[in-house]
Amino acid sequence: MYILSTQASNFVSGVDKAFLIILGISFLFLIGLTLTMLYFIYKYNRKKHPQATQIKGSTTLEIVWTVIPTILVMVMFYYGWAGWHFMKKAPEDSFNIKVIARMWNFTFEYENGKRTDTLFVPKNKAVKLNLNSMDVVHSLYIPSFRVKEDVVPGKEKMMWFIPQKEGIYELFCTEYCGLQHSYMYNWVKVMPEDQFDNWYADTTRQETTAVIESPAASGKRIMKNIGCFACHTVDGSKLVGPSFKGLYGEMQTVVTGGQERQVEADDEYIKKSIYDPNADIVKGFNKGLMLPYTNQLSEDNIRQIIEYLKTL
Ligand SMILES: [Cu+2]
User: Fold this and answer.
1) Which strands sit side by side in the sheet containing 259-264, from one edge to the other?
2) What kind of fold does domain 215-310 have according to CATH?
3) Which of 17, 90, 203, 214 could be joined to 128 by an S-S link, Cβ 3.0–4.6 Å?
4) Domain 95-201, CATH class in plain words
5) What is the distance in A from the centroid of ligand 1 to the CA of 39?
6) 136: CA distance to ligand 1 center in Å?
7) Cα of 230 to ligand 1 centre, how many Å?
8) CB hemisphere CA count around 252 (13 angstroms)
């Protein structure tokens, strides 16, 4: 249960307090109303109380049931507001990270150009996430930090927090955003500040894993991380997009500007399919579903992807 988890961020205590107070008030009412109901069933049942009495209003009662709920609602409002209002303003010296949400993955981009699929953050430092969506409305949720915010295309949104405990926490999309919505599931890794600084300074490693691997293996990992397999398979079955099985080097029928034509699936074609997917549409598939990856994949990445496709 998240309620019992530790103070993973500066917002945990405020949110949990509001939650427990509201839960507590709800429980009091549940118990109080149930007991009153049972008592009335007993007291006013037909045998004991055969003759119904007409009651013509009671000012005292009316005042009581207006004033008490108003106070309770104001108490709930107060604690809710107290826990929430400072979520809306990040400290000036926050560490900025750009979040890019798209169907169906999150990418985190750091100011020095580092780009990852796991959110790495330093402990005890204010972190501000600038939220961007490339397509539809997503919502970024980190339950252990008690933060959640919609990611809306064309709108500047942000969230901030101070991670307070080392560890790995869940992060996911909570706005149903299409077929593979459930793929939008990642991790937040909180590291001590010196360890984070070392990780951050090493810009030679773009990706999250540090293992040495073949270009084809890198290609596969990049595709997995960035979410290509949400729409493409490697076993010949169709999803939203064509399967990659046996694609490399084969002739492919595409529609270019309304004209059908045959092209060889070579390096150029694959690169173009990734940077400008809507130029040539594979016959039998829909235009506009795959978005250009121009800002997210370097030429190196594309080379590694091609190496992987060759193995299929
Ligand atoms: Cu989403």
Assistant:
1) 259-264, 251-256, 280-282
2) Cytochrome Bc1 Complex; Chain D, domain 2 (1.10.760)
3) 90
4) mainly beta
5) 49
6) 8
7) 12
8) 23
Q: Output the CA 134–ligand 1 centroid distance in Å.
A: 11
Q: Tens digits of per-residue pLDDT, 178-193?
A: 877 887 888 898 999 9
CATH T-level fold of 2-88: Helix Hairpins (1.10.287)
- Centre of ligand 1 to C-alpha 58, Å, is 53
DSSP letter at 229 equals: G
Q: In terms of C-beta density within 10 A (0-12 exposed, 13-18 middle, 19 or more buried), how is residue 308 classed?
A: buried
Cβ proximity of 255 and 280 under 8 Å = yes
CA 291 / ligand 1 centre spacing (Å): 15
108 Cα: distance to centroid of ligand 1 (angstroms): 14
Amino acid letter for position 93: D
pLDDT digits (tens, 9 = 90+) for 95-129: 999 999 988 888 899 998 888 888 999 999 999 99
**Domain-wise residue ranges, the chain:** 2-88, 95-201, 215-310
In the structure encoding, which two tokens stand for residue 32, read together?
């109080």
Distance 264 CA to ligand 1 centre (A): 34
